[in-house]
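Q: Got a minute? One more chain.
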Amino acid sequence: MIKAEDFARNLHLSVLSPSTRTEWDIPSPDLNRPGMQFTGFFDFFAWERPQVIGKVEMAYLDSLAPENRAEMLTRYFSYDIPCIICCRGMKPPADLIAVSKAHNVAVYSTAQTTTAFSLAAINYLSRCLAPHVMQHGVLLDVYGMGVLITGESGVGKSETALELVKRGHQLVADDVVDICRVNENRLTGECPEMVRHFMEIRGIGIIDIRAMFGVGAVALRKSIDLVIKLEPWVEGKAYDRLGLQEDYVTILGVRVPQQLTPVRPGRNMAIIIEVAARNLSLKKFGYNAAQELDRRLNEMIAQRSREDSSDTYEA
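A: Always. Here it is, folded:
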């Protein structure tokens, strides 16, 4: 469900005709431009979408005789359309406003062009209608990479995030991350508004990162590119030391690279996460240090094998 008040506020719409409906059941993040419906063609009418009237549609409406326009509007508003948005600051005909009030349909106006508004509206609806999940963790922007730090309570996630903020990186969410799947292979995370910019540090309490470090220390939302799972160091456990094997975690059906990072006294977790973010960035550009080392070792072994074969042959 899309809340009408949030839709109008986030897209900076002016109300031309109000409605008592507070939310709409919109099934997809698409819009409909009703030019064909204004001409009388109602087959395949996407009435369940927000209706966007641009310059062409408005010019056609103005060209109709009042009786023809009234007949068309009566049929048009017989469908349960959610709302109408008039672009370019245009004012619709008075009879359209009258019929919209009779059918309790909100009419809005925007100064944006039709293309610009459509892009903004589709992006907004995509975020609202996308699958969401709440996850315990800390999300930061580290060197442009969205890093989600997870782990059991008390392992040091917030303390690590605080050190990263001190080193110039941006906090997105602490403790609770609202994760949204914006498309088939991309996740974004943000903080619930109630606790946005706040962080809990054991022994100190709640601190406001934006007030303490400035507006540049926080970000509203960020894509999730890497998951760092912190766990207390387990003596004798075999941890990955080469990085040849890729580990992933699935969130909302999207596979995200994950690295298990042990925590013990003396390890600077902030620096380790910075290096992990830079290393992931290099991998995205096609360079993998572990694979490069493995290639060099294989070449050296093959070279020595050829030299040994040559010495044996000469003997």
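A: The mean pLDDT is 91.
Q: Perfect, thanks.
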